[in-house]
Design brief:
Layout: H1 2-15, H2 23-33, E1 53-57, H3 60-66, E2 77-81, E3 91-96, H4 105-111, E4 125-126, E5 145-149, H5 174-188, E6 196-202, H6 204-219, E7 224-230, H7 242-245, H8 253-265, H9 271-279, H10 290-293, E8 301-304, H11 310-317, H12 329-347, E9 353-357, H13 380-388, E10 396-398
Helix pairs in contact: 1-2
């Protein structure tokens, strides 16, 4: 494993050119270190709700023409419920579900045994959520049309490939599924008459939002599109994997990861970012990585991100099973600083970029609009409501609490996850 990694990293370091990467070597690396998060076999729970979402499958002609499907080739669909308020009939929220990504044949095939790899596990209805498609009035979009896109492609909503041996004979079609959903909404729900769209997602869904935010704004010309990215900052600028640092190639963390996943998924990436990469002689696959991508997002956007993303730290960058019993304090300090700087860089010179950054060690578990973490007197729902008010500056909230180990230890007392009384994400 180390030899394959060193050869791969050395080729990038020497040339910076995409063609010198060896995808097979990268695949062996990911298999041996065990990256990728495969959910356990399960189906969506049957729920009771006064105003449930209803599953609508993509019509067969659209599925065929747009190559829309789940990992196993089963048909794609979306959950929808129409606006409650007559004044909100032309206002929409499209929410991309998260759920990690799969990068090896083992973890990709594991997804086929549950609802994140096959629509055959999906239920006909779905209950309320503790996010921007909640019906609770604490959500500023509670009375809008809500569309919940389930995640069954394992590709961070960027995939466009066809079934082929190099992709484990599976379909990575997340981007295609977004396109097919928009086409179906136009056909069946008068989506062409939309005036407003909030394009949102969490975790892998937020990676999809980051990569497709400007695309959606261009696709829906004349619609007031804005984006909400929750826990999708994979990875902050200047952040290295410690296990790569140990062999002297930590600076290639973003290059190795971005190259591998974009090749596997045949990812659709942000056009303005790709143009920047071409103009500067950088490989285009870097546009999957948040630090390289997000400065090029031109559409109005709001970031909700914990100072310490527990998934990134525990499962990727500072993995305990690779000789690290505990992350060094300097790493934790740098991770917090890099997270804030990466988001703030997007906001410089703009008045439409908002953010909300709690001093918490968590991934998305506390990113709720009902059971709220509070940052400087603002819950997430309140921060989004103020961000929507164009008469006031976009809120930029960095947790001001003080810990016993400043910069290293979370200090927000409300870092709890979404409570048991709320119906999940």
């Amino acid at each position: 494993m180390i030899l394959a990694l060193v050869l791969l990293a050395a080729s990038v370091q020497a040339s910076g050119k995409e063609e010198l990467f060896t995808h097979a070597a990268a695949q062996r690396l990911f298999e041996q270190i065990g990256l990728g998060f495969a959910p356990s076999a399960r189906s969506s729970p049957v729920v009771q709700d006064d105003n449930p979402f209803t599953l609508e499958m993509i019509p067969q002609d659209l599925s065929k023409s747009l190559h829309s499907q789940c990992l196993d080739g089963s048909g794609y669909g979306y959950y929808v419920r129409r606006a409650l308020s007559p004044s909100a009939q032309d206002k929409w929220v499209l929410y991309l579900q998260g759920g990690g990504l799969c990068v090896t044949q083992v973890d990709c095939e594991a997804r086929l045994k549950g609802d994140q790899g096959s629509s055959t596990w999906w239920q006909p209805m779905m209950g309320d959520k503790d996010n921007v498609v909640s019906r609770d009035e604490r959500n500023p979009y509670h009375d809008w049309n809500h569309v919940y896109l389930k995640y069954c492609s394992g590709d961070t909503w960027t995939g466009t490939n066809e079934k082929r041996p190099g992709a484990f004979s599976l379909y990575f079609s997340g981007f295609n599924n977004i396109l097919a959903t928009v086409a179906a909404l136009r056909r069946h729900h008068n989506f062409d008459a939309a005036s407003d769209l909030v394009f949102a997602g969490s975790s892998a869904g937020a990676i999809g939002v980051n990569n497709n935010c400007d695309f959606m704004a261009a696709l829906l010309e004349g619609v007031n599109v804005r984006c909400v990215s929750v826990s999708g900052l994979f990875f902050p600028r200047g952040t290295n994997a410690l296990w790569l640092d140990r062999i002297g190639v930590g600076n290639l963390t973003a290059e190795i990861g971005s190259f591998y996943v974009t090749t596997l998924f045949n990812s659709h990436l942000d056009e303005s970012c790709l143009l920047h990469a071409r103009e500067h002689g950088d490989p285009g696959f870097l546009c999957w990585n948040a630090a390289y991508l997000v400065p090029h997002i031109g559409t109005k956007i709001f970031f909700a991100q914990n100072m310490w993303d527990s998934i990134q730290i525990r499962q990727i960058l500072c993995r305990k099973d690779i000789h690290y019993a505990r992350c060094p304090e300097q790493f934790l300090y740098d991770f917090k600083r890099n997270t804030i700087e990466t988001i703030d860089l997007v906001a410089q010179g703009r008045d439409d970029v908002g953010y909300w950054i709690p001093s918490c060690f968590a991934h998305e578990q506390n990113m709720c609009v009902l059971t709220e973490t509070i940052v400087n007197d603002y819950g997430l729902g309140e921060a989004l409501r103020e961000w929507e008010d164009e008469s006031t500056p976009a809120p930029r909230l960095i947790d001001s609490c003080v810990s016993s180990l400043p910069g290293v230890e979370p200090c927000n007392p409300s870092c709890h996850g979404c409570g048991p009384e709320t119906p999940g994400r």
